[in-house]
Amino acid sequence: MLRSLGGIMTRPRNAWEAFQSGGEPDGVSGDIIKSWRRSQWSGVDPERLDVGHVEVGEESSFVRIAAPVLTRMADVLVGSSTCLALADLSGNLNWRWVSEPSLARALDRYQFEKGARFGEEHVGTNAIGVSVESRQVAMVVGEEHFKEPLHSWACAAAPVVHPITRRLVGAIDVTCKASDANHFLKMVARMLADEVSSALYSASTARERRLLDAFVNYRATANGPVITLYDHVMIADEAATALKLDQKSLWATVRAAGPAATLIRLSGTVSARMRTLTPGTLADGVVLILGGAIPDRRLARPIAAAAPSDHQHPPGLTPIERAEAEIITNVLIECEGNKSAAASRLGISRGTLYQKLRRYRLDGSS
């Protein structure tokens, strides 16, 4: 039988127990079960809290812009036993506001504090981890948490995608006691994410907005994948994103071609028509409309593959694929082998990363 806590219908504890004992749980959503399985596969201990912490450095631009938005909402939530938090791409807490001291002390006991690692691979099923993993608004109540010590809490989180680059920049979380949970938590998280997205757009530069406008205009009429590009910004549609082009390498190819170029080759099979946003200069960026190979000697040279490493990639890779393999290798080194962190930094899911590791033989296979 389901029981009601503050308006939320929660699942019986025996569903969690059935899963932990290897059975098939009833009355739990498919998304929660998928998250439980990912948590189990990641080796998360369901009985111990052991959240772990990271050193939170200088305030990120995301926190700098998002925190004032959440603080404005905080005035309405005083006395409501609610916590608002901001997490980065990996689910690490970067900022926290709590409505009352007693709740703050309780959250401290459960290690929900600045620097805490609430990515799914560390804590298992929780709203922050699920929203970062799925790129969707998530809500986790009571026994839906993978870790038993978190069963007394409820949380809703919404991912924040940058309105210019369309890349995930972090997540917004609303947390309260499970006994106080209601469906408004999810609504608040989604509303705050929308407001933060608007604030990010307002804080963007004129050049970034112009790139977005150009992207929207060309995407409506182009007969191929579209990218708008500048030296540190790249906006791409889904088809272009699937090619996993490296922004820095792509911009290097554009600069090598020069503002007068109209066609550039990205690989042996992918070329692009190029248009500068301002005629005769690369100063404001370019639009690339991707297409098939164009056999023309006047095309710009392909993107150079990264410097060779000791690892032997499988034969037959294109220059872009070799470059991607090297980028993945370097990011894994920077993340000290943490595949979830590497996937977040690369802007892809863990499943996609594992596919690429096998494809490029970076998983130890031969």
From TrEMBL:
Residues 65-198 form the GAF domain. One of its GO terms (molecular function) is sequence-specific DNA binding. Residues 320-360 form the DNA binding HTH domain. It comes from the Bacteria. SUPFAM superfamilies: Homeodomain-like. Pfam families: GAF, HTH_8. This is Transcriptional regulator. It comes from Planotetraspora thailandica.
